[in-house]
What we know:
Structural class: alpha/beta
CATH class of the largest domain: Alpha Beta
Strand order of the largest sheet: 7-8-9-10-11-12
CATH architecture of the largest domain: 4-Layer Sandwich
Largest sheet: 6 strands, mixed
Number of domains: 4
CATH superfamily of the largest domain: Ribonuclease Z/Hydroxyacylglutathione hydrolase-like
CATH topology of the largest domain: Metallo-beta-lactamase, Chain A
Amino acid sequence: MSQVERQLDEMEETIVSEVPGDVSITDVTYEGPELVVYTRDPKTFASNGNLIRNLASKLRKRITVRPDPSELSRPDEAREAIRRVIPEEAGVTDLDFHEDTGEVVIEAQKPGMVIGRHGSTLREITQEVGWTPEVVRTPPIESSTVENVRNFLKQERDERRDTLERIGRQIHREEMSDDEWVRITTLGCCREVGRAAFIISTPETRVLVDCGDKPGAEGEVPYLQVPEALGSGPSSLDAVVLTHAHLDHSAFIPLLFKYGYDGPIYCTEPTRDLMGLLTLDYLDVAAKEGRSPPYESEMVREAIKHCIPLEYGDVTDIAPDVKLTLHNSGHILGSAIAHFHVGDGLYNVAFSGDIHYEDTRLFNGAVNDFPRVETLVLESTYGGRNDYQTDQADSERKLKQVIRETTERGGKVLVPAFAVGRSQEIMLVLEEAMREGEIPRVPVHLDGMIWEATAIHTTYPEYMRDELRDRIFHDDENPFLADEFNHIDGGDEERREVADGGPCIVLSTSGMVEGGPIMSWLRHIGGQEDGTMVFVGYQAQGTLG
């Protein structure tokens, strides 16, 4: 009997001893970092909200309880019962039943109303029908990325479950070394911008943190060939942690699967979706520019299939001697500081990823309160002695002034912007300024991936700043749905119509003017004397911007 099987047997014995005597436990297994408990009495667990919490505390594991398939109501009966339990105002748009795991995925416009206070509605659903509910948000703006990711994961559900069981056994394997040390290896991004990649190693484990490209420098890949990374073979990597989806951190994550990596990627749910969006666009841009893409779109799908989404603050076993916790970094949607706890109190390392220390319009500022950190690997963009960064309020004031002056003379304002993060920040500035009468109400045209990235933002408002989240949840005011915002989906013909029309604002990718629709906008309106071009983001050396 293996170490993992002994662990599972011992935990099943503990669970049986802790639950009421009439509760039947049929199986206990690992799926990734989670312990999954199957029972013929899911309604008993649902009626006692503290039972799972107490088991998780005692076993020091993340626990999911699923019904034994023999205890499930028929899907047609369960569908009717679930709709009776959930308030109509929740706006349920879909129910998807998975009989192999006893889970029902409920898609709704207002997930909070499906969950109920402290999960009360979810427990009521399980008590009524036996199925374990999982709730996802219906995107307020239709998102092809979110839809495609959800459909793909649904299609790959069986294979993904097998993968998670394999990963779970790898995480909980027996430690083979008594040595204690921690080593950090830099594979890129130090003393340069971009190409983020680090290895954190112990005698037992190797974890890759990020794997990105270098803006404006074709062919400069992180040093993956070193023994600490893929030089010893792809199986030597236990896990990959992705702090956020910007390409200087994520572009070469799919490349790992081309080289044979078959392990987990830990990140937040929005980061998973945004990584899919940005890496597929990365391949598209490479093809249009006549460059050989480093991997195929199939590798992007493999990366998505191997993602294990974590929420901020969840302490998660990712190896026998390493626990991971993700914390908000305040940079973009779903961006995270990765905190590693090594051994039994041996050492703590935090990788900041990209951070924004103060609150912004979009996000709460980066978390900086950790129980223990011996080593902090910190982003240092704008951190030099002579670096200068303008004040946020002053920058917004200047932007509004430029917009007023340009539109008053009948011109157009062209803003190259990154699709993820900066565009949504500018959208909030423009929406508020128009609502407050600080700038004229003119059309704001969104081109490139900006509309799709914004749709993903509206799918995950819980990752946004407290005030913005409350405005969306409680006041039912979503600034991203303002009438002034227009999606450019008619290609160059629509761009010509805008160019021939009246005053407006155009937000377009790419933010560093390295390709994409911004090049078309420069051809159409770049020569108009009454127009203005405004840069609102970092411009790397070697880029046109």
